[in-house]
Design goal:
heterotrimer; A: about 290 residues; mainly alpha; MetI-like fold; 9 helices; about 0% strand; disordered N terminus; B: about 325 residues; alpha/beta; Rossmann fold; four-stranded antiparallel sheet; 12 helices; 12 strands; about 30% helix; globular
Chain lengths: ~290, ~325, ~350
């Protein structure tokens, strides 16, 4: 019989298979991820943690005597709004709202939409058709009109905003999950898993999810930004977070009324909204590049 | 086989060609000092496994390497230097002097364009002719590559054609301006055996008819044996053996070439007989061993093999090899 | 070679078709990928199936495994017809039938580690406890020539082609199959690595008594590895017989053409004995499917489809005008004619 068969070398191992499998690594790529990520982490810290450890003026119940102070006034770095509330504080608490709504809507979409999409893509047939019809119905609702209806009917509040936007988010994730699942479904390693005896649920959990997760995560980050904007829009229209609770959207609306006199009232929340969404987009793009998602 | 004339000097002269790619763990030397000459109307086969450098060295000749590649040495086509040319200068060589046919025709053909138009476009890139004239030439080329009913096939799209047909289209495109040298880079690897035979017959026929020189790049020694006059065997970026076909296969010298020959399944062999194998894998091109690159896997390796790389030299007329302990009695 | 009365795998009249959809989802045609294929594989035997692109050999392999289920025909493995089963009963019946694919990297989940990949069938079929499984994984990795400590924790992209294919083989071996279907298992490997992996197949065959259904497009490769060889063309078997017999005395003109097309034959290159392009499997030629490229075709070939006839011991051909005239060959009488090879 022939000698033992290894094609091992005693030399350095981990010789890569083919030169094609290079990941895009490098300093630029890492920075593109960590700069926006750093900004978002800082912002989240500022919005959620900072007010717990440092006495920040309350965002509501301000004294009318302090209304309309300009930025860089003593005790009010960003000034106060027409009701006398500290703008910085309202920015921070409004930021909480943005993060909460963004996160909840995205999470609901990711979990429910993702699972539905994967089930539809993997099992196809009747499962696929019925799930996709339901999702098609959901996606047919214009999000803002629906939110308007909910706000009119049930009254505006944070949970209502979340559910209204979730109706939009679930089918979006569902489609992404389904197309991602379809793409890998015909791969030989899926067939190999079935031939190894693995069942559907196990295959979805251990094979499908890890392979479509990069796609879903990058989409989730972009979606996060979109949701924040939508929440802002709803609040701007008065259909989202009800006053006097702070929200970047309603702050912009209020600021619009005093735009000529004190433009910063509108510009400051706009700037935060803009920066947050841009950071989310950049982070999503950076991760997409790093993970090779198309 | 073809009687090659060495009169008039070589068509292509490659001298000490080196190609390296910058890498994280050091430079990757894909081609490590390759020198050879190609004479008019010769059929040269460059044979090697993946990572041997055969494809990279030919892409260097055509200027088809990514910008990160560092190319050194010289490659002269009829005296004119090919390396380091600008895109414009290179374009003048491509098509009229050198043309290349690649492995996967479905990737090289535009799926949204009629095949006839793609040939005609190739004609018009290099020659100033009218559209009608280019069309005529395209149909003529289709006929040259034995595509039946060329006038009709002109209007078809790549997806309507079989793999063999598509490769014929690629050959027609390559021949659009009657190049002096045609490089076939694994041109038949993706094709079926019967189609491969037909395409190889076609290439040899065209070589004779058009007075072309043919360079075949392949991992298939059997193909080299049946189609080429001269064979170069490459390993880890270098030439390890070169000889005329009969010489190489009857008097093989380099142990690597012998290992390749022995490892190919052959019809004459009885079933279930174990194939003679050598262990190991080709070396990491960014960390080449001192001495002969093949020494770690070679049965005949001795101490001098591991310390000093053997030079490529013409130890016998018409037969070069790079080995300190070549095989004395070669067996095909 | 052939032992025991019952074949391990018995395929009868297998038919597999795919609907081709035009734009708008309208049915554009049917690809007759496999059109009535029958063969047996005995325990310990290797049956090689050689065919070119479009022959349907890969579809045949998958249809045997019910992925997807064939449109017609029976696939009897160890006495049970797989076509009639589904769900967990199919999984149980198919347990001892495994597959190795052409592209080693495509058949291994890129996110999994080698150890988990090899253990997957053990977990799915609930073999042993965690310790026993780990032991088996190590055992089977060593069997294919890999070092469990060095390679077990790696992902496919950290392996070479040969190593990845060994992992795929290890996974196939994990639950002690009786038969492995190999679909072009070495075609994407370099020559020297190819030889190593082929030797591995032989070694496993000798040590474990495995049967193989070995599919490839390289006739020399198939013959090297097989006891019997079946030649497939456009969805049908053209010729089946012992490897040596098919090589020395091919009966079907297509087999002859394949042999002549092998480059580097010891004799000078024979002129190719095949014409034209392969026809489309959506519109296969009437009668004998090879007739449009056959130098020996006559009117009868267009009118009547040739049946598989046994012209010598264990050597059958489906041709009206086989290369050896029928009269010169021992033709078995009685029901032997038409018996499945």
């Amino acid at each position: 019989m022939s000698a033992p068969l290894p094609d091992l070398l005693p030399a350095p191992d981990a010789t890569p298979a083919a030169p094609v499998r290079k990941k895009v690594r490098g300093r630029a790529s890492t920075l593109r991820i960590w700069i926006p990520a750093g900004f978002l982490i800082l912002l989240a810290f500022a919005c959620f943690i900072w007010p717990q450890i440092y006495p920040v003026p309350k965002p509501v119940g301000g004294s009318i005597l302090e209304a309309g102070l300009p930025p860089l006034s003593p005790g009010h770095i960003f000034g106060t709004d027409p009701n006398g509330n500290d703008v910085l504080s309202r920015i921070l608490y409004g930021g909480q709202v943005s993060f909460e709504v963004g996160f909840s809507v995205t999470a609901i979409g990711l979990v429910i939409g993702g699972l539905l999409g994967m089930a539809a893509g993997y099992w196809r047939g009747v499962t696929d058709t019925s799930i996709m019809r339901v999702l098609d119905v959901l996606i047919a609702f214009p999000a803002l009109v629906l939110a308007l209806a909910i706000a009119e009917g049930l009254g505006p509040s944070e949970p209502h905003v979340i559910w209204a936007l979730a109706i939009f988010s679930i089918p979006a994730f569902g489609r992404i999950a389904r197309s991602g699942t379809l793409a890998i479904r015909e791969q030989n390693y899926m067939l190999a898993a079935r031939l190894s005896g693995s069942r559907g649920r196990h295959i979805i959990l251990r094979h499908v999810i890890p392979n479509i997760l990069p796609q879903l995560m990058t989409f989730a980050l972009l979606g996060f930004g979109i949701v924040i904007i939508l929440e802002g829009a709803l609040s701007y229209l008065g259909l989202g977070i009800p006053l006097p609770e702070p929200s970047w959207g309603s702050m912009i609306a209020q600021g619009q009324q005093v735009l000529s006199a004190t433009p910063e009232q509108a510009l400051i929340p706009s700037a935060f909204l803009f920066a947050t969404v841009v950071a989310l987009n950049l982070l999503g793009d950076g991760l997409r590049e790093r993970w090779g998602v198309r | 086989m073809n009687r090659v004339s060495t009169v008039g000097g070589p068509l292509l002269e490659v001298e000490n060609l080196t190609v390296s790619f910058p890498g994280r763990r050091g430079d990757l030397r894909a081609v490590n000092g390759v020198s050879y000459s190609l004479y008019p109307q010769q059929t040269l086969a460059i044979v090697g496994e993946s990572g041997s450098g055969k494809t990279v060295s030919c892409r260097a000749l055509m200027g088809l390497l990514p910008p990160a590649a560092v190319v050194a040495g010289s490659a002269r086509f009829q005296g004119a230097e090919l390396l380091g040319l600008t895109d414009d200068e290179m374009r003048r060589h491509r098509g009229t002097n050198i043309a290349m046919v690649f492995q996967d025709p479905s990737r090289s053909l535009n799926p949204t364009m009629k095949v006839g138009n793609q040939i005609a476009e190739a004609v018009r890139v290099h020659r100033r002719v009218s559209k009608a004239e280019a069309r005529e030439q395209a149909i003529e080329l289709l006929r040259l590559v034995h595509i039946p009913v060329p006038g009709q096939r002109f209007h078809e799209y790549p997806h309507q054609l079989s793999g063999g047909m598509r490769q014929r289209i690629m050959i027609a495109i390559a021949l659009a301006c009657r190049p002096k040298l045609l490089i076939a880079d694994e041109a038949t690897t993706a094709l079926d055996v019967t189609t491969q035979a037909q395409i190889m017959d076609l290439l040899l026929e065209l070589r004779a008819e058009l007075g072309m020189t043919l360079m075949l790049i392949s991992h298939d020694l059997g193909l080299a044996r049946s189609c080429a006059d001269e064979v170069i065997v490459m390993y880890a970026g270098q030439i390890v053996e070169q000889a005329s076909t009969p010489q190489l296969f009857t008097r093989v010298r380099m142990p690597y070439t012998q290992a390749l020959l022995e490892a190919i399944p052959r019809l004459e062999r009885p079933a279930h007989s174990p194939l003679p194998v050598i262990g190991g894998r080709p070396p990491d091109l960014s960390a080449l061993p001192a001495g002969c690159s093949f020494a770690p896997r070679c049965r005949r390796a001795a101490d001098d093999c591991r310390t000093t790389p053997p030079p490529l030299a013409e130890h016998e007329p018409g037969h070069r090899w790079a080995c300190w302990h070549p095989i004395d009695t070669g067996v095909a | 070679m052939t032992s025991g009365a019952e074949p391990l795998l018995s395929v009868r009249d297998l038919v597999q078709e795919f609907v081709v959809r035009d734009y708008g989802g309208v049915k554009g045609g049917v690809v007759n990928a496999v059109s009535g294929v029958s063969f047996n594989v005995w325990p310990g035997e290797t049956l090689g199936i050689v065919g070119e692109t479009g022959s349907g050999k890969s579809t045949l392999a998958r249809s045997v495994l019910q992925a997807p289920r064939p449109k017609k025909g029976t696939v009897t493995f160890r006495g049970t017809d797989l076509v009639t089963l589904s769900g967990s009963r199919l999984l149980q019946a198919r347990r001892h039938l495994q597959m190795v694919f052409q592209d080693p990297f495509g058949s291994l989940d890129p996110k999994w580690k080698v150890r988990d990949l090899v253990a997957e069938p053990l977990i799915a079929y609930r073999v042993g406890d965690r310790a026993a499984r780990r032991h088996r994984v190590d055992q089977v990795l060593e069997l294919v020539g890999l070092d469990p400590a060095a390679h077990g924790g790696r992902r496919p992209r950290e392996l070479s082609g040969g190593q990845a294919q060994r992992v795929a083989i290890a996974r196939a071996l994990a639950i002690e199959p009786a038969m492995i279907i190999c679909d072009e298992p070495v075609s994407s490997l370099d020559v020297l690595i190819q030889a190593q992996v082929l030797n591995l197949f032989e070694q496993l065959r000798a040590e474990l008594g495995l049967s193989y259904l070995f599919i490839a497009h390289d006739l020399a490769l198939v013959k090297q590895v097989s006891d019997r060889v079946a030649v497939m063309y456009l969805g049908k078997l053209a010729e089946v017989g012992p490897g040596e017999a098919v090589y020395r005395q091919p009966l079907h003109p297509y087999t002859r053409a394949l042999l002549d097309s092998v480059p580097g034959a010891a004799t000078a290159r024979a002129a190719t004995t095949i014409r034209g392009e392969p026809p489309s499997p959506i519109h296969p030629p009437s009668g004998c499917r090879f007739r449009t490229r056959c130098p020996r075709a006559e009117q009868r070939c267009a009118d009547e489809e040739p049946a598989m006839r046994e012209l010598a011991t264990g050597h059958s051909v489906a041709c009206h005008f086989p290369l050896v005239p029928v009269a010169e060959v021992t033709v078995r009488s009685e029901q032997k004619i038409g018996e499945t090879p």
